Amino acid sequence: MGDESEWMKLPIDQKCEHKVWKARLNGYEEAAKLFQKIQDEKSPEWSKYLGLIKKFVTDSNAVAQLKGLEAALVYIENAHVAGRTTGEVASGVVNKVFNQPKARAKELGMEICLMYIEIEKPEPVQEELLKGLDNKNPKIVVACIETIRKALCEFGSKIVQLKPIVKALPKSFESREKAVRDEAKLLAVEVYKWIRDALRPPLQNINSVQLKELEEEWVKLPTTAPRQTRFLRSQQDLKSKFEQHQAGGDDEEGDEEDEAPVVDAYDLLEPVEILSKLPKDFYEKIEAKKWQERKEALEALEALVKNPKLESGDYADVVRALKKIIGKDSNVLLVALGAKCLAGLASGLRKKFQTYATHVVPTLLEKFKEKKPQVVQALQEAIDAVFLTTTLQNLSEDVLAVMDNKNPSIKQQASLFLARSFRYCTASTLPKSLLKPLCAALLKQINDSAADVRDAAFEALGTALKVVGERLMNPFLVDVDKLKLDKIKECSDKVELIHGNKSATCTKAVKPAPQVKVVPSSNSGDKVDAPATKTAGPPKKPSNKVGLTKKLKGPGPASAPGGKGKKAMEVKEVEPELSLEVCEERAASVLPASCLQQLDSSNWKERLASMEEFQKGVEVADKKELPCQALVRMLAKKPGWKETNFQVMQMKLHIVALIAQKGNFSTTSAEVVLDGLVDKIGDVKCGMKAKEALTAIAEACSLPWTAEQVVAMAFAQKNPKNQAEVLNWLSTAIKEFGFAGLNVKAFISSVKTALAATNPAVRTSAITLLGVMYLYVGAPLRMFFEDEKPALLSQIDAEFEKMQGQTAPAPIRKLVKRDADDEETPEEQDEEENGNVQDLLPRTDISDKITSELLEKLGDKNWKIRKEGLDELNTILNEAKLIQPNISELPGVLKGRLNDSNKILVQQTLVTLQQMATAMGPNIRQHVKTLGIPIITVLGDSKANVRAAALATLNSWVEKTGMKEWLEGEDLSEELKKENPFLRQELLGWLADKLPTLRSASSDLILCLPHLYSCLEDRNGDVRKKAQDALPMFMMHLGYEKMVRAAGKLKPTSKDQVVVALEKAQAIVPAKPAAPSKTSSKSNAARPSSTVSVRAQTATTNDDTDAVALKNDPKRNKSGSTAKIKPGISKKVPSKQNLKDDDDKSGPIFIIIPNAKEQRVKDERALKVLKWNFTTPRDEYTEQLKTQMSSCVAKWLQDEMFHPDFHHHIKALSTLLEHLESETEGTVACLDLILKWLTLRFFDTNTSVLMKVLEYLKLIFTVLSKEDYHLTDNEASSFLPYLINKVGEPKDVIRKDVRSIMNMMCKVYPASKMFSFVMEGLKSKNSKQRAECLEELGALIEVYDLNVCQPTPAKALKEIASQIGDRDTSVRNAALNTVVTVYNICGDQVFKLIGNLSEKEMSMLEERIKRSAKKSSTVSAKQVEEKASRTQGLNQNAPVPRKGCEEMPSKLKIMYRTYRIQARSSNAHSSSESNPTIPREFQLDLDEIENDNNAGRCELPDLVQHKLDDLYEPVCLPEPKNRSVSPHFDEIHGSTDSTINFVVSQVASSDINTSIQALAQIDEVLRQEDKADTMSGHIDQFLIATFMQLRLIYNTHMADEKLNKREILKLYSCIIGNMITLFQIETLAKEASMGVLKDLMHGLILLMLDSRLEDLDEGPQVIRSVNLLMVKVLEKSDPTNILSSLIVLLQDSLLATTNNTPKFSELVMKCLWRMIRLLPNNVNIINVDRILLDIHNFMRVFPRERLKQMKSDLPMRTQKTLLHTLCKLLGPKIMDHLALIENKNESELEAYLRRVTKHSMALSGGKIDSDTEKGGSTIEDKESKAKISETLAEIFKKIGSKENTREGLAELYEYRKKYSDADIEPFLRKSSQFFQNYIERGLRLVENEREGKGRISSSSSSAGFSSPADESPYVASSTSVPSAVSTNGEEVGPAVYLERLKILRQRCGLENNSKHEERQPATSLLSKPTVPTVASSSELLHNKLAHLRDSREYNQEQESHHPPMQTNSNTTSAANLDDLKKRLERIKSSRK
Question: For residues 952 and 1416, which has the higher predicted lDDT (pLDDT)?
């Protein structure tokens, strides 16, 4: 205590925790000051105090606690992390602050609680305060109530939840402490302000005195609603509004009225459970004969149902009993009492009563025949209460059924019920589809003879008019006379709606008077949700009354609005028929008199002229005044539709279409012409015009009406042609108009008639029409045709199959309204089109077939009778096909059968329920609570087959209903609560499957959480696993916070476990599926037909085409033709069902579950599941795979995969192909399951499926190798044996694909392990399989050496050799070939390995070995190619290593695979990869041969490759294989190649010393010139190992602080030194391939940018060394490879795929600039085609617009510089180098090159002319060039063979002598120095032998051979001899100098024409003679210009190599050139 200086020096946070209270006091004071000073709310300082704030408020010292509270308040107000402390601090305040005697402490505690609420944490604060109400200390209770009251007063009821407060209030009123009761009273008053009378029911049981006091206080309260005065941080906008209102007075108080939420008293009540409280004899008494006993039972029930809120339960028996009382009891008093009980039950259950509503409403309506007022009143209350539990839509059928009843009382009460129901509706909850039939029935009743019925109907119609407005009601009131219409409007004015008086008729927003209204204790479901103030649309017109009266003026009867399923709005009013005289008079006003006179002329020409005038008259006439009926009647005059001349008839039909399009065409007018149109529709000449006219009429009068009339007329005739064409027209029309409004029932009847027709054309048309209908209706359509003959049914099925997978096209036509009054009708039409098309299907009412006898059978004690009942029910369902939802009391009985003791009956019931779901469709949702939930209960059955059946039934129900009904209420949580492990795991699995597909879920899902958490701790492991899987799916809808809060109520031990599980689940929560795109009907209608046709084509593309397209271009989904169609246009959602399906298919197909694959492997090892091993797959394997897939594969895809029809398998495979690129991770996660499913498909007999499977396998293994993925043993063992079985297929194409896949398998699975599986294939009885397996074994041994043989080479070879004696020839040959392959590797050692063979077999083997020895010198290209493809990561220029492959580290092999795949996929450099791999000494520079720039042309690569293959075949393999092998077999394996492989593999070692030793050994080899060549062929391998080591240093060693950095620097020095040595040896440097160089440059640049090196002493020196190394790499590597790798690296870096910085890209571009500077030297030796292909790929990824958007312009400048340099060097010939680019339109490269070339040619003046002169020889030059290459190839072939070497040298000497300009440099560039010296020496010997005759040409040719090729296109290589001394040191004669002088004179234009013939330029040796000596002056000038320009270009090029030379000559040449240009211009002008 005395030493205060100690704690005074401590930091603030330590003071706050100090044991001395004064230190803490001081700490709190300083902390408060610090908190006020911190300005940044996100400052890291706040986090220091997170764990201390609770200690601030709970300090044991009262003085310190006060300061701590003040500091805590400041902290909470300012810190952004304060919310994390809410729970613990609030708890501390309640328990340690509210009990303090100091008032200040209590105030601060309250303020802290309120501040937490302000910072968005009201729930935890309220939770802690409510816990405080249970505290034993009354001080704490009082303070908690006061804080709650204050929070409610300030923040309002939106922030503070009232339900838990109201629930706790009664208990506070019972407290012994007066202070608590008084505070509770104040709280009750405060609550009353916010919810008014809703508070009364919960407090009805408190002390009467207290209640009276409360009533007195409530009366004193003001009537205005209270307002929020304190706001959350997120409500600052509301705060500013509030402050403005406060400043400006309360004038605008009404504006904020809507802020007070309306609270329903029902929500505040606790439910009461009454079922258990019913008297035990209730059901006996209620059926007793004495009415007194029945009354006693009802009174007992009435007392129970008076509880305002009832607990949910099974009330089916109670409802059934009440229904019987109401319907059948003779005592009217009991009927009234039963109705009261029913009303109480409905009011208490609300939404939970919905299940029973449809069962009781018909009975209530029928009972309205009773006339006693008390009975009627009770029935009214009952039916009104029932209505509030459901929707009018569900009850409409029952109401409509009694509207035609004979009893007027029933009709009256039904109308009154509708009137009362309408008052609860809004415009949105009373749609036109519902209103239409109700209005039709009510309109009949306004003409009833009984006044009461009429008045009730008027009231109902008036209420409907008030709700929806005149605009929607007008079409239904067309036929109502003026008096009745006024009566309806009068009733409408009197109506007061429940939701306010605003209706759709309002055209002006009227502000209601402020009022505080409590919603009555009722709930009308969805109807309440729509705001009462919402108007139906903008007021486009002052009033619609005008339109209404206008329609009433039209005389004549009108059809019933609801007739035959047509829309009332679509059919125009019926026009009266006009007499012929009136028609003629009206037609005369439009048509000329001559036209009318000639209409019936006997001369066809006059009739034709009349038609032409008729057409003109119609076209000119005003649209509004066009008398349609009169005109069509004129057309129908004699001869009318019997017209014999087709021209006149065509005109007539065209005019009908014109009138229908232009005028106000009514159905009366249509009836005049339809008969004639149908008669002509089958006519060959007039049929098309008739169809056009029908389409126009359909647009005018609606398709449903037109189609019905036309079909009826067609089938009334006997003309099959007309019938067929009508059906064809209807098929087209449905696609154009859509399906809305069509009378499906009538069409089905007509189609059935057509299918029965004898004419095949009619049947075909009918089937086509069915196909179109299938697009809209779907599978239920087939039910109506199951009775057809099998042959016909198969045709229908085929048509449906064609349509499967297609979506219905968007309508492009619609009903055209030409009346001004009908402007808004299309909107309404669109609304109705969006309805469910399945609702149009005719459904049968089976309620009369559900007899009491059937129900008794189903409930019988004898199981056989129960089964009979189920069979009868199945028969009823089968006959009805589609049924109405009214199924009487069947649900209750079937529910009992789900609990049947006989499991067979349970399964049969489930099948029946599944069938019922299909038959009832979406209407089955009203039976979800009665029958659906019991299905879930069956999931708890102990038998797996019963559970599987229940799950299938459950899914079939969900398909029809959606998930909404299942998740609402407490039923699901009650099921989960049951401690049945089977039920829990099945239900959780089902929820985990369904929840991710939903965009939103019911809030009732939170009720399942406690049970879900208990499942996490269940004793059953499967339940725990399922619960863990379901957690993320629940979190997806409920959110992490809610779930954590729910976990807070668990026990501490359980809570910790659950929170950990929640945190894990949070990381894998799936995203909610996106909402499907909606396309409005208007946009569809406006879309041109061309777009629709494109979309239709796209939709009908078959799956195979898609798969092929995907294979060719995996990214096709982002580009191509399909991309041109907008997503919104390409899809139209025709129905809700299809919308749901599309939604299901929109998400990912694989669900990635962590460690799921590993768990499946463990299960298989532990024998929990069947091991995947079978001869043929049994059902249990299929079921097991299906179960395993259910958790990780999308449901819809799983359905396709396990569908019995093979077409679905093809669709599944197509889907897998489509998603392979986008869902690679998911594919890998489920790979074991996918491969298992593919093995099942191997057993299918369908070839299409098998080919698709193989196609997918090829693609998936390509992707896996790219991803560097390795198959696990489990995956391989489940798949490889079945793949190997397929290699024995009889079809060649399948065998070829299987072999290809097996070849690819080596990239993802070790060859040694695969060897074992292939060996197993030798045991097959299929000889083809054995032969193929032997060939595969031979290939594996050839590539991987004998080390691949398993278990040992001896055992494997004995098994292989045993096949030599096979009866099948192909097997014997394959076995012999395999053994010969082994012999080629190890020689005679093979005889020891294969063991003893019979004499015959041994002789066969020896003979085969002898033959192979003869053929060993010629290896087929196919073998080499196959070998190269199998070999992992070999350099394209290196020989195939025979040994040491297995010794390399596995990582190095993986790298090899990756680079080969990358090179193939990125640039497809097929030219380099397809070459056979041959030894380096005999390789030629193919790139230079292909691109011989001396002639400036690109040779055909195929030709060159072909010749070179032939040329170098003999030296493709090492020494002859038939040499005797040393007995020391192991010494062979210790060869040089093997040693190098081993040392190189050590370079990549993770041990630094090992790596340094390996590098030292390699460095020693590289520094010795005679040994450096041994590294040839291993350069790529060495470079891969090197940069793998660089990567290891960068990622691991540099990050390891324990490692000595000097060791790392030493390793760096070794690596860089080795590389510099390597890249100084040009021959070795050029062996580095493109992919390896790319990764090397990537690693070196990263090393240069490594900031960690700068911190080391010698780091900068390392960076400088790397810089030097990079320069060497750029200069010495193969120019094509290094340039290509830099372009690809730049592309990758700009795409940020390598996580690079901008500095990285900049360094890559600097390297490119250096290469560009070197281009003039390298342009002749680079493969320009490959470079342009890489630039093309770059420009495709980065078009000009994308490059412009980048921050830096360097990439664009680099690209331009490279292209400009290439164009400058190659000129127009650069366009010949685009051969490798398949689609030049994918990038701007070609266009850009043309632009640059054109520009440079324009600058170069007359160069075009000179080129033109030489143009004639181009073709000949190409041909001669090919011959030269061929000749040279033959010569070098001879030199390469030992026998013909001298002959070859002599021919080469003669060839050089004859063609002194020939350039053999490309043939020698990549060969060894030894080979070059050999040829030089040989040529000198030949020259000496020939007596020195050819010394000059010899020396010149040798000099030309040793010098670089000349870059001038006109000068031979021999002219560039740099010295006067030949290569052998002899002096050159004067002839050489004379030749050089001639050339120089020629360049300067001084050549003597007389001697021109003595020597021609090289380019003209094989072409036409040069310009003749006698020439015009202009031609001479042209020649001189050409020579001068060539000379200047040559000098410029020389200057680039030797800058000081020839400066004067350049200047002179330029001056001469300008002078000559001027002279040429003068000559040209003088000639003109």
Answer: 952
